[in-house]
Amino acid sequence: MCGIIGIVGQGDVALRLLDGLARLEYRGYDSAGIATLVNGRIERRRAEGKLTNLARVLSAEPLAGRIGIGHTRWATHGAPSETNAHPHASARVALVHNGIIENFRELRAELEAQGHRFASETDSEAVVHLVTQYLAEGLAPRAATARALKRLEGAFALGLIFAGEHDLLIAARRGSPLAIGFGAGEMFIASDAMALAPFTNRVLYLCEGDWAEVTSAGALVFDAEDRPVNREVKETALTGAVIGKGNYRHFMLKEIYEQPAVIGDTLHAHLNPATQTIALPELPFDLARIPKVTLVACGTSYYAALVARYWIEGLARIPVEVDLASEFRYRNAVLPEGGVALFVSQSGETADTLAALRSARAGGQRVLSLVNVEESTMARESDAVLRTLAGPEIGVASTKAFTTQLTVLACFAVALARARGAIAHAREAELSVALAEVPARAAEALTHDKALRRLAGKVALARDVLYLGRGTSYPIALEGALKLKEISYIHAEGYAAGEMKHGPIALIDDGVPVIVIAPGDALFDKTASNIEEVAARGGRVIVFSDAAGLAALGGAAKTAIELPAVDPFVAPILYAIPVQLLAYHAAVIKGTDVDRPRNLAKSVTVE
Ligand code: G6P
Q1: What is the Å distance from ligand 1's center to 350 Cα?
Q2: Ligand 1, atom 8: nearest CA belongs to which residue?
Q3: Which atom of ligand 1 is nearest to the CA of 297?
Q4: Tell me, what's the pLDDT at 504?
Q5: 467 burial level (CB within 10 Å; 0-12, 13-18, 19+)
Q6: Distance (Å, whole) CA 138 – CA 155
Q7: Could you say which of 47, 131, 266, 453 would form a disulfide bridge with 585 (CB–CB 3.0 to 4.6 Å)?
Q8: Among positive and negative, which fits the CA dihedral 297, 303, 306, 311?
Q9: Mean confidence (pLDDT) of the chain
């Protein structure tokens, strides 16, 4: 995935490139680097690891130059090392790349046979040598790049600068997002408009296959056939303000604590408390006539989609299919005419989800997306957009985006049910009230922070942890396991509680904590039986339930967190919170980098 930025500026650009990269670090932090032109020559500074390492290198060896490109990397081809860090360069061209060049082996063999010497193991370096080769054959930078682009297979956003060309930056986009920013006498490129927010709010998004010649005076955009095209310049509402951690130790903790407020904001946009009805934004299709809903997402967003299946099928009685984007896009799924495909994504940029969106559109589906980033590619490519109002989520492990996704999906399910006449007004009113109470109940759930920290002390000692749940609590168990493993590096698995007897029960001994998500819903008694089965085998059960549930469990729930009693419909939103806090504290105890766990990135823009 990676984040890229470029500036054709007035003054020295190195520190501004660094500032922009800080806003792109959510896209990867295996290494970072910048390249500028100093007296017409390409100069680079690169460092393995997080951006702070590059900042140190730059303060020891500052870099001048009015034009430059920068990169923060999530490694795909080649280990995270300084040698593999971008920008990659020859004496004539320097390049930053987000994406994967799929035919790099073949290009590399061809270029090595022509005498090019590769310094890194990356796929990206092939593009540097390809452009260099065309420059050596006498083509000007623009023509050399245009020719090289035609040889590339895969996905990319590219930024290139050229030795001796102080006023030329070339940008290209295929598969990975790229924005061009318009300043006063200077121009910018970046993977997203947020990176450009401190510099300009006038932004043009390159369309698929576009490339552009960017100079300090403006940008000329060409389509994939090299025909000049006009793309709209938009004013973004993004602010350049640095998002801080406030008094919190980590962004993740801050974001967990923001949940009562952002769930409230999200509800405010989707629920009318006066009429006790759900009010979705206007949609360009009739909800009453949808034959099937296909939900597609990755990671935590996928688990939100899994919860939505129970809600939509249960309330609206419409068939729902849920799939991982990376599977869906290659599966040749059977999609009914007039079906709705709903893509759930915090970033709106996840490569697999975006590709799945395009394949669903090609398959004749009405495309709906649920995103947190309003100006994202998915939002722009959808027939209609639903929004989570979670605000910027910085911690790599998703928290408030997840609970706000659940909030909107719950509203969507109710709206579908109403449109199909499958729900009585009284029940809609009940659910609206239950939803409206979630912010207050979420605030109550946060009061268990200390108890969860104590519990985390035990969980942090475990090698393996099991999470169990039934119905809508099953995806919460999956999410709990994902949260724990991604930030604390403890192996964890989420299982449907009823499925435990088909395998995971073999793992149970007194060293494996078993965390059971057991709200007082229709399946509570079934889950209670599974708790007994674990306890009978000496397992260490930790139960999340309400007062009535815990009373019913008696001695089987020695270790428990008591959550407020709520309508079971909204329980998954509420029960996500202790699951997040437990993982957070376990990670802090283990001393990991909670906000930027190893090998992960917030926005995954490669397949
Ligand atoms: C990455 C992030 C996760 C996120 C997933 C899907 O793996 O680390 O937190 O859930 O991508 O991202 P999206 O932006 O599409 O929701």
Answers
A1: 7
A2: 602
A3: 15
A4: 84
A5: buried
A6: 27
A7: 453
A8: negative
A9: 94
- Which residue, among 325, 313, 333, has the nearest Cα to 351 in the 3D structure? 325
Going by pLDDT thresholds of 50, 70 and 90, the confidence category of residue 175 is confident
Report H helices in 114-258: 125-136, 141-151, 193-196, 251-257
Whether the pLDDT of residue 243 is over 90: the answer is no
Cα 178 to ligand 1 centroid, rounded to whole Å = 19
**Pairing verdict, β 540-545 and 559-562:** parallel
Give the per-residue pLDDT at 602. Answer: 78
For the residues 107-126, what does the mean pLDDT come to? 96
For the entire predicted model, the pTM comes to 0.83
Q: Write out pLDDT tens, residues 8-48.
A: 988 999 999 999 999 888 888 889 999 999 999 999 999 99
**How far is the centre of ligand 1, averaged over its atoms, from the C-alpha of 289 (Å)?**
31
Give catalytic status of residue 483 as yes or no.
no
Cα separation of 15 and 29, whole Å?
18
Name the closest-CA residue to atom 15, ligand 1.
345
Residue 239's SS3 state is coil
Q: What's the average model confidence in pLDDT over 310-333?
A: 96
pLDDT score, position 311: 98
Q: How far is the centre of ligand 1, averaged over its atoms, from the C-alpha of 602 (Å)?
A: 6
* Largest distance between two CA atoms of the chain: 82
Atom of ligand 1 nearest to the CA of 398: 9
* Catalytic residue (choose from 2, 254, 483, 485): 2
Pocket perturbation via mutation, ligand 1, pick of 374, 603, 606 by most ligand atoms within 8 A of CB: 603
**CA separation for the pair 311, 576 (Å, rounded):** 16
Cα 568 to ligand 1 centre (Å): 26
Element (H, E) at 585: helix 571-590
> How far apart are the two ends of the chain, measured CA to CA in Å?
9
Q: Which residue has the tokens 């509420």?
A: 574
Q: Pocket residues for ligand 1 (CB within 6 Å)? A: 298-301, 345-347, 350, 353, 396-398, 600, 602-604
**Residue from 398, 482, 483, 580 whose mutation best tests the ligand 1 pocket (most atoms within 8 A of CB):** 398
Among 27, 26, 30, 60, smallest CA distance to 47 is for 30
- Active-site residue (options: 254, 400, 483, 602): 602
Q: Does 590 participate in catalysis according to the annotation?
A: no
Q: How far apart are CA 191 and CA 497, in angstroms?
A: 42
> Which atom of ligand 1 has the smallest separation from the CA of 396?
8
For ligand 1, atom 7: residue with the closest CA: 299
d(CA 465, CA 463): 7
HEC states along 46-102?
Answer: EEECCHHHHHHHHHHCCCCCCEEEEEEECCCCCCCCCCCCCCEECCCEEEEEEEEEC
pLDDT at 375 over 90: no
Residue 208: CB atoms within 10 Å: 13
Mutate to test the pocket of ligand 1, among 324, 343, 346 (most ligand atoms within 8 A of CB): 346
Classify 391 as helix, strand or coil. Answer: coil
Tell me, in angstroms, the distance from the centre of ligand 1 to residue 347's CA.
Answer: 7
Q: How confident is the model at residue 407 (pLDDT cuts 50, 70, 90)?
A: very high
Give the β-pairing of 154-162 and 169-174: antiparallel
